[in-house]
Design a protein that fits this description.
Number of strands: 0
Order of helices and strands: HH
Distance between the termini: 18 Å
Structural class: mainly alpha
Helix content: over 70%
Number of domains: 1
Oligomer: single chain
């Protein structure tokens, strides 16, 4: 999870300015990824 946020922040410096939204998006994506893995 931390790696995903770090990668997103690395790819998009502006992501650091919208980190709260980034966290919510990352959680939603992670949840979707888990459901697809099952």
């Amino acid at each position: 999870m931390a790696q995903v946020l770090a990668l997103a922040a690395h790819l998009s410096p502006s992501a650091q300015a919208v980190m709260p939204n980034g966290v919510l998006a990352a959680r939603a994506y992670h949840r979707m990824w888990l459901s697809n893995s099952v």
